[in-house]
Amino acid sequence: MGTWTVINPNGKEYTGEKLVRLCLNAQREYIGEEEWLQRLKKGLEPDPDFPVVVCLCGSTKFKDEFVRQGFNETLAGKIVLSIGCDMKSDDELFGRMTPEQFSEVKARLCELHKRKIDMADEVLILNVGGYIGSSTRSELEYAQASGKKIRFLETSGS
C-alpha cells in the first residue's frame, strides 16, 4: 500500500498528517463548523447498532485462555479478533524454519496483530498470572498510543 500525496496548484505537497489536516479543514469549510463538529463527535461515539470489536492480546503460551476469553467475549455480543496461529506449539509448521525465517514470520505476525488492534474498539490483555511478555507489552503500548480502550484479564498484574 502506497502513500497518498496531494499537490495543490502552487506546487505544495501534502502527505500523511498534513494531508489529513488539509482534508479535515476542507470538509469543515464546506459543511460549516457546527455540522463538522457534530459529525466529528458522532464519529467518535460507538455505533449502538454495531457490536463492539475486541482484540485479544497475550502470550501464545496461554492458548487455552485465548479460546476461553474468545468464547466469553463472543457470548457477551462482541466481535473477537485473536491470534491466528501459535508459534510456540505449531512446531510442525515453524520448527523446520531457519532462525532468520522464523524471525521474519514472527515480525509479520506481530504487524498483522497490530492491524487487528487498529480494527478493534477495545483490547483485552490476557495477563495470566500477571505475565506480560515483550510482544504483548509492544501490543499494549501500541493500543495505548492508538487511544484504544484497554482491559486486563487480571487486574492485579496490570
Give the helix/strand layout.
Blueprint lengths: L4 E3 L5 E3 H16 L1 H12 L8 E6 L4 H13 L3 E3 L9 H4 L4 H21 L2 E5 L7 H12 L3 E4 L6
Parallel strand pairs: 3-4, 3-5, 5-6
Antiparallel strand pairs: 1-2
Helix pairs in contact: 1-2, 5-6
Biggest sheet: strands side by side, in what order? 4-3-5-6
CATH class of the largest domain: Alpha Beta
What is the helix/strand order?
EEHHEHEHHEHE
Number of helices: 6
| Overall pLDDT confidence | 84
And the CATH topology of the largest domain? Answer: Rossmann fold
Low-pLDDT regions? none
Number of domains: 2
Radius of gyration computed on alpha carbons: 20 Å
Report on the biggest sheet: 4 strands, parallel
Helix content: 40-55%
- Percent of residues in beta strands: 15-25%
State the end-to-end distance: 36 Å
Q: What is the SS-derived class?
A: alpha/beta
Question: What's the shape?
Answer: extended
- Counted beta strands: 6
Q: What's the architecture of the largest domain, going by CATH?
A: 3-Layer(aba) Sandwich
